[in-house]
Design brief:
160 residues; alpha+beta; Elongation Factor Tu (Ef-tu), domain 3; 2 domains; three-stranded antiparallel β-sheet; 39% helix; 24% strand
């Protein structure tokens, strides 16, 4: 399932307002998480996001933080193109290769990871994704696995 491409601007500093006619087919299909493709001038990015009902309107909101704004090259008053697609990923975000490789060698940690809530799973994955250096990603994934096996599930403490 894909939405039509539509033009959008920032609602505020960190959000996009998604028209209800775009969001509701996904919500009706029980898909509040979507894959998003954003295009501005010659820049294009893809990311995953959650559709949240706006309490003040009939529309939906989506987080679009400074990191994504910078990657796309948009400023507060810019309009850009957006398209929503069905999220077919297992965790609501793509699993980094390094974390997947560590989980393949540590079945116990992977089993614990699988028992966590989807939000905690995504938080762990996002933490690994944000690390630029491959070796550091592997090192942090190993630390996280050891902490999971010790019973730590707080994402803020898993990587220390």
């Amino acid at each position: 399932m894909n939405s039509n491409v539509f033009s959008i601007g920032l609602l505020d500093q960190y959000h996009l307002q998604i028209p209800s006619e775009i969001a509701e087919p996904f919500i009706a299909n029980k898909q509040s998480r979507v894959k998003v493709k954003a295009t501005f001038n010659s820049n294009s990015i893809e990311f995953y996001a959650a559709l949240k009902k706006d309490k003040n309107t009939d529309d939906y909101k989506m987080m679009f933080g400074k990191r994504l704004q910078k990657a796309l090259g948009v400023l507060q008053n810019d309009y850009f193109q957006l398209q929503l697609s069905e999220d077919t990923s297992k965790y609501g975000v793509d699993m980094p290769e390094e974390l997947d490789a560590v989980f393949q060698t540590d079945h116990e940690a992977f089993t614990i990871f699988e028992s966590l809530t989807p939000g905690k799973q995504r938080s762990i994955i996002y933490t690994i994704i944000r690390i630029k250096n491959t070796q550091t990603r592997i090192d942090k994934a190993l630390i996280m696995c050891d902490n999971l096996k010790r019973g730590e599930t707080n994402p803020m403490k898993l990587f220390k």
